[in-house]
């Protein structure tokens, strides 16, 4: 994915971890929601309310998903899923660009 068409973009940024992670909410014509964001290098823990598809568009991170004991490396062009009502850990090794899709299924 390199482009989104027919969207509504919320101008105000979501700012987390003292500004080291930011994102903006995008609503598509079908009502589905994504956030587009950037993570600075660092370690973070995120929580989910819905199932999420995380697409790393650029950068290099390690993730620790719920119920896993092994860290996994994800690079630009790769993706991973996180279950609803869970938390996961991220070690951003480089400046990382991402797209998060919120899945209602």
TrEMBL record:
Entry annotated with the keyword Ion transport: no
E.C. numbers: 2.4.2.1, 2.4.2.2
UniProt catalytic activity: a purine D-ribonucleoside + phosphate = a purine nucleobase + alpha-D-ribose 1-phosphate; cytidine + phosphate = cytosine + alpha-D-ribose 1-phosphate; adenosine + phosphate = alpha-D-ribose 1-phosphate + adenine; inosine + phosphate = alpha-D-ribose 1-phosphate + hypoxanthine
Name under which the protein is recorded: Pyrimidine/purine nucleoside phosphorylase
Taxonomic superkingdom: Bacteria
Keyword Repeat tagged: no
Function: Catalyzes the phosphorolysis of diverse nucleosides, yielding D-ribose 1-phosphate and the respective free bases. Can use uridine, adenosine, guanosine, cytidine, thymidine, inosine and xanthosine as substrates. Also catalyzes the reverse reactions.
HAMAP family: Nucleos_phosphorylase_PpnP (MF_01537)
Family to which the UniProt record says this protein belongs: Belongs to the nucleoside phosphorylase PpnP family.
Annotated source species: Thalassotalea profundi
InterPro entries registered for this protein in UniProt: Ppnp, RmlC-like_jellyroll, RmlC_Cupin_sf
Key words of the record: Glycosyltransferase, Transferase
């Amino acid at each position: 994915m390199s482009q989104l068409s027919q969207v509504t973009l919320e101008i105000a940024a979501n700012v987390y971890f003292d500004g080291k992670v930011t994102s903006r909410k995008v609503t598509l014509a079908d009502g589905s929601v994504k956030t587009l964001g950037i993570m600075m290098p660092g370690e973070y823990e995120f929580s989910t309310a819905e199932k999420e598809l995380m697409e790393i568009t650029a950068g290099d991170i390690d993730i620790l998903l719920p119920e896993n004991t092994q860290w996994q490396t994800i690079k630009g062009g790769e993706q991973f899923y996180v279950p609803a009502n869970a938390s996961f850990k991220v070690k951003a090794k480089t400046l990382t660009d991402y797209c998060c899709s919120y899945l209602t299924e």
